[in-house]
């Protein structure tokens, strides 16, 4: 996917929202860092770089499903030993013999059935009697999976369930793509980082919020990766970007995406010989946003995501450009948008895609727009589940099914 040199005109035709998402995903996938090999204990939250397959059949040997007796032939049976989980039993070579067996223990060669302990009786002669069930009481080799069978495709996020499966498959390490390192630069001399707003200055709401969103998309962000407010001068912007790009795969900036007297992001990108992947998107709110690519001295691509200064618009830029970029960089599948049915009408935005904050009712999967949704407002965002997508030239009608861009959540958070 070709990018444009960072010589930004004052006015540029915005890219269609769906096209912009597809473009940044493709760029991220093409520039994804090489996989690394990690022990299972360190792989949680990464992404599989190779399909997961068992090293042996699962189970690798026949195992008893119950506590009882592994028997050969017809009963009653003469006990000849015991096998516990983890042991290797001797074969049963004679009809009418049995070994006591524990759940999960290896079935002896020659066994023809397993008798549950609660359904067995012992005679005065020491023999075991009982009636075998028709269904086998053991797990056969390969019952769950065959050696080499693809169980989970590459591009799947690694979670506790997958870690357990990998261990059961015999893996000690996994080839994975770790979460990208991200940084945030907050632009704007008018911003306060503590206390209430007043006297012409407003509180920075994005410095605390954006790193939290990025972590939910799989990024690594530390307190040292957040810098600002950066002084509203071109040298300060260039210096801050250079320092952040020296350690981060993705640098998000807030504000400065226009071409006003104190908007220094575009000139700073020119100083860094950046290429635009996207420079403006036909979406409301969220205008203007951008994504640029900077090649390091090592030849590896780093990215700068220019988020608007208005808080809700910045989040629109995150879900529109940053989310698909990060999916590509992590080797994950392209984000697929779920759908919901509109319970109330939503206005269109003419030739622009409208991302409208909505709350989803899980009982019937209906979406209702929330209130307080101005570009500078966060009250509506705090109670929303995602953005309903109203396509250009359309309006959302009651009963219409529309795509929804979900807000990223950590496990256990509300949906």
UniProtKB/TrEMBL annotation:
Enzyme class comes to: transferase
- What the protein does? Catalyzes the insertion of molybdate into adenylated molybdopterin with the concomitant release of AMP.
Q: Which reaction does it catalyse?
A: adenylyl-molybdopterin + molybdate = Mo-molybdopterin + AMP + H(+)
Concerning SMART domains, the annotation shows: MoCF_biosynth
Similarity annotation? Belongs to the MoeA family.
Check the record and name the InterPro entries matching this protein: MoaB/Mog-like_dom_sf, MoaB/Mog_dom, MoeA-like, MoeA_C_domain_IV, MoeA_C_domain_IV_sf, MoeA_linker/N, MoeA_linker/N_sf
What's in the keyword line of the UniProt record? Magnesium, Metal-binding, Molybdenum, Molybdenum cofactor biosynthesis, Transferase
According to its UniProt record, the EC number is 2.10.1.1
Domain named MoaB/Mog is located at 183-328
What cofactor does this one take? Mg(2+)
Recorded source organism is Micromonospora zhanjiangensis
Q: What is this protein called?
A: Molybdopterin molybdenumtransferase
**What pathway does the annotation place this protein in?**
Cofactor biosynthesis; molybdopterin biosynthesis
């Amino acid at each position: 996917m070709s990018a444009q040199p960072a010589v930004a005109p004052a006015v540029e035709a915005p890219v269609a929202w769906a096209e912009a998402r597809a473009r940044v995903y493709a760029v991220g996938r093409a520039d994804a860092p090489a996989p690394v090999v990690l022990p299972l204990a360190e792989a949680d939250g990464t992404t599989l770089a190779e399909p997961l397959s068992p090293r042996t059949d699962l189970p690798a040997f026949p195992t008893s499903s119950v506590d009882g007796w592994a028997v050969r032939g017809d009963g009653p049976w003469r006990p000849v030993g015991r096998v516990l989980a983890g042991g290797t039993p001797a074969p049963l070579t004679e009809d009418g013999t049995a070994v006591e067996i524990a759940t999960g223990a290896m079935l002896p060669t020659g066994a023809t059935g397993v008798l549950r302990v609660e359904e067995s009786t012992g005679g005065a002669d020491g023999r075991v009697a009982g009636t075998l069930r028709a269904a086998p009481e053991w797990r056969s080799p390969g019952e769950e999976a065959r050696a080499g069978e693809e169980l989970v495709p590459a591009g799947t996020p690694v979670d506790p369930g997958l870690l357990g499966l990998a261990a059961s498959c015999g893996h000690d390490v996994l080839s994975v793509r770790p979460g990208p390192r991200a940084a945030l630069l907050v632009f704007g001399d008018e911003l306060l980082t503590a206390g209430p707003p007043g006297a012409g200055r407003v509180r920075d709401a994005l410095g605390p919020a954006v790193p939290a969103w990025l972590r939910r998309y799989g990024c690594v962000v530390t307190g040292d990766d957040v810098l600002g407010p950066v002084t509203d001068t071109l040298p300060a912007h260039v210096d801050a970007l250079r320092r952040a790009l020296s350690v981060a795969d993705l640098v998000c900036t807030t504000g400065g995406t226009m071409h006003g007297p104190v908007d220094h992001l575009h000139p700073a990108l020119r100083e860094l010989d950046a290429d635009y992947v996207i420079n403006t998107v036909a979406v409301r709110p969220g205008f203007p946003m951008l994504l640029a690519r900077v090649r390091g001295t090592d030849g590896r691509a780093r990215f700068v995501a220019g988020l608007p200064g208005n808080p809700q618009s910045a989040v629109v830029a995150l879900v529109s450009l940053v989310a698909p970029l990060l999916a590509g960089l992590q080797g994950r599948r392209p984000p697929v948008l779920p759908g919901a049915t509109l319970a109330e009408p939503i206005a269109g935005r003419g030739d622009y895609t409208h991302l409208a904050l909505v709350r989803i009712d899980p009982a019937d999967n209906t979406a209702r727009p929330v209130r307080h949704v101005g570009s500078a407002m966060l009250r509506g965002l705090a109670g929303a589940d995602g953005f309903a997508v109203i396509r250009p030239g359309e309006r959302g009608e009651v009963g219409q099914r529309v795509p929804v861009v979900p807000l990223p959540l950590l496990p256990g958070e509300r949906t």
